[in-house]
Specification:
Structural class of chain A: alpha+beta
Largest sheet of chain A: 9 strands, antiparallel
Bound molecules: FE2/S2 (inorganic) cluster, fe (ii) ion
Oligomer: heterodimer
Mean pLDDT of chain B: 97
Number of strands of chain B: 7
Distance between the termini of chain B: 25 Å
Low-confidence stretches of chain B: none
Shape of chain A: globular
Radius of gyration of chain B: 15 Å
CATH architecture of chain B: Roll
Mean pLDDT of chain A: 96
Number of helices of chain A: 15
Structural class of chain B: alpha+beta
Strand content of chain A: 15-25%
Order of helices and strands of chain B: HHEEHEEEEE
Low-confidence stretches of chain A: none
Chain lengths: 448, 157
């Protein structure tokens, strides 16, 4: 039964601000509409330019359920195409990345395409003469996606033809990506290796919500970070000369008290973006890395270098489904596979021109927190999976987001609030409602 | 040490894990011992290439204490493990550097609640003699599908 399809009001009713209906996390039709409406209407991250440096390099990705392909053409440009052969639909590239040489060749009947997607050749071409093939959309090759923006090397795509421009969509939130890239003395990020992948049996939004959930670390991670602190304190007592290892520097701040997070603040931006850690964060007290500050000061001047490194934002959510952690150079991609299944891919960037030690720290953070073998990850996933099951109860159909809610809370605004507020989760849902029904409203209007 | 001592060590170590005698297990590690799960094929660098795990005794102790913690909710219910292993191949008797090297093909099962997951690959042992006993300098787990997205792996392969 179509409860939500073509019914923008029913979707809007799922979001009350201080509460959201559980159907946003458990309903199959809502999930289908997210794939069909929400993801195409948003600017979605598909990869980093450094993954496709040379002509013929390509990466594959998905937007909602739709497979896409980005490749570097002879002219130096990046082109993004739908990853499906115009003949019978076969995926042209099946690997996450690679180099295709001068052209793509479909493995089924050998139609070939230039690396900008245009049709190069079809075997036994005479079979199409006089058939009207030239006027068919198949003759154009791989369907090109026009709305592509590369920002500081990050490649974003909007599938829908109409919608907010990249600049309107992200606005000031881009300052987090800027800060992450500026942490390279050369101002550039690069991807050197594959992400850590972690399968979650829960809805993708549980992960997104969690990124600015500052009231959970000292509770849910008492088992991991709390134990790390205990074990370390014992070791230190036995041997007071020990220096705090990088591992303990990364784990220990998770046990910071509520007051710390309250004071650190949360900033919300329009269109569902926002971040925790405005004036400080769990990343603020890492040990200096030898030689890094000098390189930064040489590159930017003293004042600017300190400004960049002093901005230690915690987690920045870019709506809908990525999180950027500037101070450790990590980007997490929450890829929805099913209403209760999410693939998390966590990438570590290397800062060009920075000492190796920083990359080492990013990689260590990633395997401590974001891996299927990470104890912090175990804590979190247990909560998501229990929630996914608990939400099936009819005893209460609503998820509570009341913390520091105020009547007439502004939507689509920029504001800094108490860092334990659930404001950013609400902010995401205001955007969710907006982008879910954006094109639906168009369709409804057109029909009237 | 003779070949049997080395082979017995590998099987006994696995039995210790499957019996959930984790504290005893950590005592098998040399002071500078490491447990390593690479994330790349034939990976050489545990520091500047990504790994699933690269842990020293301090971090392994954190894991072991966490597993039995009162507020470790991801262990309610508890996980259990099973190692099925081929006879270890002895690659080196340490003639040159005092490090015994073995490689053992395995099928590992971890279960929790109603779920059961299987992993397979190779375990690489580097053992050294400390005060007459064998200790782990490095235990390396190469999964055949290291690049696949797993759900939780909470115990030790
Ligand atoms: S499906 Fe691609 S050439 Fe036929
Ligand atoms: Fe967490």
């Amino acid at each position: 039964m179509d409860r939500y399809r073509g019914n923008p009001q029913a979707i809007a009713d799922l979001v009350k601000g201080y509460a959201v209906h559980r159907d946003t996390y458990v309903d199959q039709e809502v999930f289908d509409l997210e794939m069909e409406q929400l993801f195409p209407n948003c600017w979605v991250y598909i990869g980093h330019e450094s993954q496709i440096k040379n002509s013929g390099d390509f990466i594959t990705s998905k937007i909602g359920h739709q497979p896409v392909l980005a490749s570097r053409h002879r002219d130096g440009q990046v082109y993004v195409m739908h990853n499906r052969c115009p003949h019978k639909g076969v995926k042209i590239a099946s690997e996450p990345c690679g180099n295709t040489g001068k052209f793509f060749r479909c493995p089924y009947h050998a139609w070939s395409f230039k690396t900008d997607g245009s049709l190069l050749a079809i075997p036994l071409n005479k079979g199409y003469e006089g058939t009207g093939f030239d006027a068919d959309r198949a003759a154009q090759g791989l369907p090109r996606i026009e709305n592509v923006k590369i920002y500081r090397g990050l490649i974003f795509v909007r599938l829908a033809e109409k919608g907010l421009s990249f600049e309107e969509y992200f606005g000031e939130s881009l300052t987090t990506i800027d800060n992450m890239a500026d942490r390279s003395p050369e101002g550039e990020l690069e991807v050197l290796s594959a992400p850590i992948r972690y399968m979650h049996s829960c809805n993708w939004k549980m992960l997104v919500d969690n990124q600015t959930d500052t009231c959970h670390p000292m509770v849910a991670h008492e088992s991991s970070a709390g134990t790390a602190v205990n074990v370390w304190e014992r070791a230190k007592k036995a041997n007071p000369d020990l220096e705090t290892p990088m591992a303990v520097q990364l784990y220990a701040p998770f046990m910071a008290p509520y007051e710390f997070y309250e004071g650190a603040g949360i900033r919300v931006w329009p269109n569902g973006h926002g971040h925790s850690g405005v004036t400080g964060s769990i990343h603020q007290d890492y040990e200096d890395v030898d030689g890094y500050l000098g390189r930064m000061e040489d590159a930017y001047g003293k004042k600017r270098a300190h400004e960049i490194l002093g901005d230690v934002r915690h987690n920045t959510n870019y709506f809908p489904n990525i999180m950027v952690k500037g101070p450790v150079g990590i980007l997490r991609n929450f890829i929805p596979l099913a209403v209760d299944k999410t693939l998390v891919e966590s990438w570590v960037f290397r800062w060009k021109g920075a000492p190796d030690k920083l990359y080492e720290r990013g990689l260590m953070y990633n395997r401590f927190i974001n891996a299927p073998t990470s104890i912090v990850g175990h804590d979190d996933l247990e909560m998501y999976e229990r929630a996914q099951e608990g939400l099936l109860s009819d005893g209460n159909e609503w998820i509570n987001l009341h913390r520091l809610w105020e009547e007439d809370e502004a939507e689509d605004t920029t504001e800094v609030v108490n860092g334990t507020s659930e404001r950013q989760m609400r902010n995401q849902f205001y955007a969710w409602r907006k982008f879910m029904i954006q094109n639906m409203e168009n369709t409804v209007e057109a029909a009237e | 040490m003779n070949r049997d001592d080395l082979i017995d060590f590998v099987y006994d170590e696995a039995a210790m894990l499957d019996d959930m005698r984790w504290e005893d297990w950590t005592k098998l590690f040399a002071e500078d011992g490491r447990y390593w799960m690479p994330l790349e094929w034939q990976q050489e660098d545990p520091i500047l290439q990504p790994s699933l795990m690269y842990e020293d005794l301090l971090l392994l102790t954190v894991r072991v204490e966490r597993l039995t913690g009162e507020r470790t909710f991801s262990q309610k219910p508890k996980s259990r493990s099973h190692h099925l292993m081929e006879r270890p191949r002895i690659l080196s008797m340490g003639e040159e550097d005092g490090i015994y090297r073995m490689r053992t093909s395995f099928l590992y099962t971890e279960t929790r609640g109603d779920l059961l997951e299987r992993y397979s690959g190779w375990i690489g042992h580097q053992l050294v003699e400390v005060d007459g006993a064998l200790k782990i300098k490095q235990k390396r787990i190469d999964l055949i599908n290291f690049d696949a997205p797993f759900s939780n792996i909470q115990l030790f392969i």
